[in-house]
């Protein structure tokens, strides 16, 4: 990995201060390299920093309060745009090439909804990492988020995968997270 990638990873780690979130980012990079071993620097930087906007949420944010609208197009667009801006500003401060900054911004600006081939690849690897790792984060908040909202997020993350190959890789993770959610919902409903 390049020095700039390593600086970006360190910056993201410092901003999140959350090992679970960093694991998601690292696994996004892992899946990216599995699917495209020759991924360029911009794609790798986009993978490690695609959710940067979320590092600036506080304890009173919509996720922690349960009011977040995971599948709302305006929410997704705002998240993508802010993450792209924050990552581009960091890269500019670190004297990154203007073309690299533009490409990273382009990739992150559509990482939730896809667009071109590389944006779809970033979206798919984000989904794979989410399906593999993020269920416990959401399920632990079932009391605030509710079963339907969490299931909607899980369904969205699986259904948005654009590649049949990636969908096949992600299916076992998706099925496990749905089972875990069902189990948690039964337990929560009994309390």
Descriptive overview:
The radius of gyration is 16 Å and the shape is globular. The model is unreliable at 59-67 (pLDDT under 50). With 191 residues, the protein is mostly helical. The chain has helices at residues 3-16, 19-35, 41-49, 62-65, 73-93, 98-108, 117-133, 135-139, 142-145, 147-159, 164-190. The termini are far apart. It has a single domain, classed as Hypothetical protein af1432 (Orthogonal Bundle), CATH 1.10.3210.10. It is 74% helix and 0% strand.
Ordered list of secondary-structure elements with their pairings:
Elements: H1 3-16, H2 19-35, H3 41-49, H4 62-65, H5 73-93, H6 98-108, H7 117-133, H8 135-139, H9 142-145, H10 147-159, H11 164-190
CATH C-level class is: Mainly Alpha
CATH architecture: Orthogonal Bundle
Rg for CA atoms: 16 Å
Number of helices: 11
Q: pLDDT average, as an integer?
A: 90
Shape designation: globular
The name of the CATH topology is Hypothetical protein af1432
What can be said about this structure in brief?
The chain is mainly alpha-helical and 191 residues long. It has one domain: Hypothetical protein af1432 (Orthogonal Bundle), CATH 1.10.3210. The chain has helices spanning 3-16, 19-35, 41-49, 62-65, 73-93, 98-108, 117-133, 135-139, 142-145, 147-159, 164-190.
């Amino acid at each position: 990995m390049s020095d700039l990638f390593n600086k970006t990873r360190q910056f993201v780690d410092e901003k999140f201060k959350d090992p679970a979130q960093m694991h998601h980012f690292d696994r996004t990079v892992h899946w990216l390299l599995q699917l495209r071993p020759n991924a360029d620097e911009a794609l790798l930087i986009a993978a490690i920093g695609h959710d940067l906007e979320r590092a600036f949420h506080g304890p009173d944010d919509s996720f922690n309060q349960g009011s977040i609208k995971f599948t709302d197009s305006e929410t997704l667009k705002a998240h993508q745009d802010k993450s792209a801006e924050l990552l581009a500003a960091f890269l500019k401060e670190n004297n990154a090439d203007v073309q690299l900054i533009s490409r990273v911004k382009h990739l992150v600006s559509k990482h939730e909804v896809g667009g071109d081939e590389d944006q779809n690849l970033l979206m798919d690897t984000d989904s794979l990492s989410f399906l593999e790792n993020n269920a416990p984060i959401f399920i632990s908040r079932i009391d605030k988020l509710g079963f339907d909202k969490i299931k909607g997020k899980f369904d969205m993350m699986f259904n948005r995968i654009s590649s049949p190959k990636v969908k096949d890789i992600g299916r076992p993770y998706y099925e496990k997270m749905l089972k875990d959610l069902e189990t948690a919902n039964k337990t929560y409903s009994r309390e």
